[in-house]
Amino acid sequence: MSGSINCNGNGTSGGAAKTTVASAITPPKQPQLAAKVIQQSQIVCFDVDSTVICEEGIDELAEYCGKGSEVARVTKEAMGGAMTFQDALKIRLNIIRPTQQQVRDFIHERPSTLSKNVKRFVAHLKAEGKQVYLISGGFDCLIAPVANELGIPLNNVYANKMLFDYLGEYDSFDITQPTSRSGGKAEAIALIKKENSEGSIITMIGDGATDLEAVPPANYFIGFGGNVVRPEVYRRAQYYVTDFEQLMGQ
């Protein structure tokens, strides 16, 4: 879906930030109440691409491997509902076919850029004794450096896994991961619910429709538009913020 883009983040390792006026022209929706929702939550789950980080990981990897325009075309078709999430993922990865070495080089040469104030917000949540999770349709090998930068245990990351052969060539991806299919974020949250105390309040924060649709089993959804404002998500979300600072209260 088309939207405005903004990023003036504090990079994980210095990724270049993009800056436009999305957050300036998009008014938040009930940010004070959203901050209260966070206070009441025992578990806070974040989407990664365009939420915790400024970029969309698979698009950046595709561009790095010289397949950017081909993958962008498939992404557009997928967003139009022409195929399932898993089919779109399969097609895009079969176009990119990154080697293990290319993935390592990409992580080193194109580190992700953390969204503005997200590191401070995650530290605030942890200081309050809350559990923090990352739930992404992206790939764990690209997300692990982000989790490490934020001090989030890798056990608290739900993401897809690329599979390589013995020569380090791309083979496929793990289709047993819940986030590899439509409705996967809700599935991941259901698993998180089972792992934690009964009655724990879970809030999902993200920029996209798949994040919005994670309620239920999540108790609350807070839309995030600090990088990309998706009109449908903005319209449907009860709570919406454009800077993580808005969720930290006074």
The largest β sheet comes out as: 6 strands, parallel
β content, as a range?
15-25%
Q: Work out the oligomeric state of the chains in this entry.
A: single chain
Provide the helix percentage. 25-40%
How would you write the strand order of the largest sheet? Answer: 4-3-2-7-8-10
| First and last CA, distance | 34 Å
Radius of gyration: 17 Å
Protein structure class: alpha/beta
Describe this structure in words.
By secondary structure, this protein is α/β, with parallel strands linked by helices. The protein is built from eleven helices and ten strands. It has helices spanning 22-25, 31-40, 57-64, 68-79, 85-96, 100-109, 118-127, 140-150, 184-195, 209-212, 231-236, and strands spanning 4-5, 43-46, 131-139, 157-160, 162-164, 170-173, 202-206, 220-224, 228-229, 239-241. The strands form three sheets. Strands 4-3-2-7-8-10 form a six-stranded parallel beta sheet, with helices on both faces. A two-stranded antiparallel sheet has the order 1-9. Strand 3, helix 8 and strand 4 form a beta-alpha-beta unit. Helix 3 (57-64) packs antiparallel against helix 4. The model is unreliable at 1-6 and 8-21 (pLDDT under 50).
